[in-house]
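Working notes for the structural subgroup meeting. M.R. asked for a predicted model of this chain before we commit to crystallization trials. I am recording the input and output together here so anyone reviewing the notebook later can reproduce the run.

Input as submitted:
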Amino acid sequence: MPWLQLRLVTTEQFADLVGDALMEIGALSVTLMDAEDVPILEPAPGETPLWQNIQMMVLFDAEVETASVLKQWHQNSLSSHTQQENFELLEDKDWEREWMDRFEPMKFGERLWVCPSWKPVPDTTAVNVMLDPGLAFGTGTHPTTSLCLQWLDSLDLTGKTLIDFGCGSGILAIAALKLGASRVYAVDIDPQAVIATKDNAARNQVMDERLSVGLPDILQDIKVDVLVANILAGPLRELAGQISALCHSHAKLALSGLLDTQAETIRESYLEWFDMDQPVYQEEWCRLSGVKL
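Returned structure, recorded in C-alpha cell form:
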C-alpha cells in the first residue's frame, strides 16, 4: 500500500524530541537528513549527525487524516521548533529491494573491488572485499574511503605491516590483508567499530593471526611500514606526533577524512616528520600521503 510522508525542518537541538513526539501521534518511522547539504562523514552507529538544521522525513500510514495529524502536532509545544511542514504521497515499493539495488560492486585502482554480498563478484581473479552497506561506517561509497582504497591498491603491501587508524567497518584493514600485508592492526576509539571490524574480517576470512583489532591501546610498542588514518581533521592534527611515532623510518602514510579546505593545515602539521605529497582530491574531499623522514 502507499504511504504518507511528512517533511519538516527542525534544529539539531530538538531533533530527537521532535522525532519522539511524532512517533507518539502515530508516525511509523523518522529519518534525519541535513537540511542545508552540509558535508559530514558517515556517522558512527548510535551517533546523531551534528547538523545545525535537520530535515525530517516522517512516515505515516496512508489512511491517516493529514489535517488531524497536523492539528495534533500544532497542539504540541515542540511544534514551535519546526517549520516547512508538508505531506506527500509515497508509492508502494519493495523498499528493501529498492535500497539493495542502489549498491553495485565498486572498483578501486587496478586490482581491488568492494562487493555487496547479494551481487555477483565481477572479477573472481581480482582482490575482492565483501562488505555490505549499512551502519558500519566505511563501505567505499564515501569519497574519503574511496581515496584510501585507491591508495592502498597503488602500494606493494606484500610482507608489510600496517595500522588502520580509525578502522570503522574494517574495510581498509581487510583490503590491506587481501592485498598482501603480513600484519595489520585495526584500531578505533568506538567499541562498536571494533565489533564491526571483527565481523567483517570473519566474513572475509581474514580474522586470523595476521589481524589484531581493538582500541588504540593495542598499539603499545608497535611500529609499522604503512599507516592509513581515515578520521577527521581535528584528531589528525592533534595526533600527528603519536601517528609519527607509530611509523618506521621510510614508512608510508595516508590521511583522509579531510575537506579540501583543511588539506594545507593538516599537511603542515606533518611536515616535521614526513615528506608530504600534494593532496589528491575527490569531490570536496581530499587525501594526504607522505613518507616518514
